[in-house]
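Example 3.2
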Amino acid sequence: MLPTKLKGKVAIVTGSTSGIGLGIAKSLASQGVDIVLNGFGKAAEITAVRHDIERDHNVRTGYSDADMSKSDAVRGLVEAVAETMGRVDILVNNAGIQFTAPAESFPVEKWDAILAINLSAAFHGIAAALPVMKNQGWGRIVNIASAHGLVGSVHKAAYVAAKHGVVGLTKVVGLETAGSGITINAVCPGWVRTPLVEKQIADIAEQREISVEDAAISLLRDKQPSLNFVTPDQLGDTVAFLCSPAADQITGTAIAVDGAWTAQ
C-alpha cells in the first residue's frame, strides 16, 4: 500500500454493508479514514461490521440506511454526514442493482430503478458533496462504474446505459472541478465474485450440469482474459490510491480493473 495522508478524513461509501463497498470501506479505514457505511442489512450484522472496522483501524464509523433510489435521501445523507462528522472529504458512489432481460421486454419499473440507484444516486451525491468539498478546498469522488461503463453486453440495457452515464458524469464533473483540489474518477471493475455473480455461476453450473468452479471459469473465459476474479480488496486499494496525493492529477477518467476485459 502506498503511503497516504488521509488520516482524519471522512468518507461516505454507499452500498457498503457487504461486498465491493465493504472492501472499499475497509481499505480507506486502513488509511485512517473515518467511514460512514450505507446500505441495508440486519442491524446486528452492521453493528458488528462497524465494531470490527473501529477495532482494526482505530477510526470512527457511522451508518445510514438512506435509500439510494430517493434523491432527497441521497442528498440528505451527505448533508447529515457533513453536520455530524464535521466534513465530507471522500464520496464513493458504489450502490447498484442489476436486472437482465432483452430490451423489448425489459420491465419499465426495473429500468427506472436501475437508473435511479446506479446513475441518479451518484449525481445527487456529487451535487450535495461538491459545495462541502469546495469549502474545504479538497475532495475525492470515486464512482464505481463497471466494465459495462465502457462496453456493452446483451440483456443489460439499463445497467449498461447507467454505467456509461456514470462514466460521462465523471468526465463532466472532472472538467468542472479541475484545479480546485477536488478530483473525480470512475473505477470500472470486471467480474467480482459478489453474491450476485455467485448466483450467475450457480445458474451456469445447473444449466450445464458442471461444477461450480468449472462454471466460474466458463464465466470468466467469456469476458475476462486473466481468468481471475477482481477482489473487493483490490478495488478498495484502487480507490485508496485515487484518494492519495499520488493521484492528485488523475481526474475525470475511467480506470478499468478488469483482467483485460475491455482491452479486447
